[in-house]
Design a protein that fits this description.
about 60% helix
Length: about 325
Amino acid sequence: MRRVFGVVAALLLTVSPMREADAQTFSAQPAAEDFSAVDADFLAGRVGAAVAALQQAADRGRLAAMLRLAQLYQEGALVPQDKLKACRLYSAAVERFSKVDRFSPGAPLVAEAFRRCAECYTVGLSVPGWDRNMSMAADLLFQAGVILEDPTSLFELSNLYLRGEGVEHNTTLAIRLLENAARKRYPPAQALLGWLMWEGKVMKERAAPGLALLILAMERTAPEHRSWIASYHDDAMLLASKDIEHEALGLVEKWKSVYQIASGPSEQPSDIPPPVKSPAREAKAPNLNRTFGSGTDRFSNQPTGADVPPATAAKSN
């Protein structure tokens, strides 16, 4: 897997095309599998039959089945929890579909596999070969975020660069990745970018646009992120002058009008939800105490952000 060695490498890296055979195999799979029979088995208490059906589909290389089965083992609600099985399924999906590019209809599912596999290495298991490995996690998030353009992975990768965990500390690249995630209307990325613009410690201070991004994120975030986003939003609103608040609210309305941004929870860049739901877990705010260095690590004079920040520049398809 290709690693990032600097800003230019991340921004200019081209996508390796799939081999023709891989493309034909993957294109034969529907974007979302029909799990109605499996769901019926689960509802009727036929857990064994449902798991067997998913396992059979996963053995045939059906990506959605691999991910759903892995999710079941990871959560441990309907089957005994087995994180090793989950991680092995995510890893198998990564290996099988590693050549898929961002133009494939199934790219979001493949990105999901890379991101979940990265979580396995982020947490680590007490099994040989599955130790905590942040460098491997960064590789997998790079593939999911930069190559497959998954906004969640871009956000998580940006935090690794901000902390210098698994990769070399690089605030410039971190901000670029964060902006890319925010452009895709991913609320946590909008919130963190907005806070960094508001705070002005690692990028040029722009209070009104930063507050506007926090407002947008607060309006559209999912429940698992609401607590930490609300803390940033409320702190900024408390400190904002009436003029800054008025300007920010004006920007919010302008961006909604120009870029057709709707209110309401939305953690995805489109109106189509992912076929595989992320495992439920408590989302925490980025650890800003470990994020920012001083001196040469800061670039407060960088002119990041135009009059309309790129974080709002994605239209609905």
